[in-house]
Specification:
With 163 residues, this protein is an all-alpha fold. The protein has one domain (4-155). 73% of the residues lie in helices and 0% in strands. The protein starts with a helix and ends in an 8-residue tail after the last helix.
């Protein structure tokens, strides 16, 4: 069985990969939107695939970034309330915040997965892909949010890492 340091290392590696995917999605999103603007205003022939692809990339970048923020506890967090509470109550408030994040992430993963599977056979308007692909960011991002929040619930406060 892996020790706590190995597990922390695995979660750190997953968080770095998640952030890299979010950043790459954001960069590709900018390129797709630039092509959409060029097609619409310079070429007078707007490509139909850019809008659905942009929506997929946006959900991936937003929810993957939110998942990493949950791990660092800069998202789904109530610092003013926690820091202002008496010391014995702080732990309970942090645990509650983490449980809320686990529940929200699990709900996003479950319902995003349901929507993805339910609409997989439907062709996407404007792009040669299944409509279910639109929900992949919600499903995977929600799973990552739940996973990172569960890590915080079990292991406690995040440790500052060198970038």
């Amino acid at each position: 069985m892996a020790g706590p340091n190995a597990l922390t290392g695995a979660f750190s590696a997953l968080a770095k990969l998640t952030m890299a995917i979010a950043a790459a999605s954001l960069c590709v999103l900018v390129l797709v939107l630039a092509w959409q603007v060029i097609g619409r205003y310079a070429l007078n022939d707007s490509p139909g695939w850019t809008e659905p692809v942009a929506l997929i990339l946006m959900s991936i970048s937003a929810l993957f970034g939110a998942a990493v923020a949950v791990r660092m506890e800069t998202h789904f967090n109530f610092p003013t309330l926690v820091e202002g509470a008496p010391a014995p109550v702080r732990g309970a408030l942090k645990a509650l915040s983490r449980l809320i994040a686990v529940g929200a992430g699990a709900a996003l993963a479950f319902y995003g997965g349901f929507l993805m599977l339910d609409s997989w056979d439907v062709p996407m308007a404007g792009a040669p892909a299944p409509e279910g692909l639109s929900y992949i960011g919600v499903c995977l991002g929600g799973a990552l949010i739940a996973l990172f929040a569960l890590e915080r619930l079990i292991s406690g406060d995040p440790v500052k890492e060198d970038a």
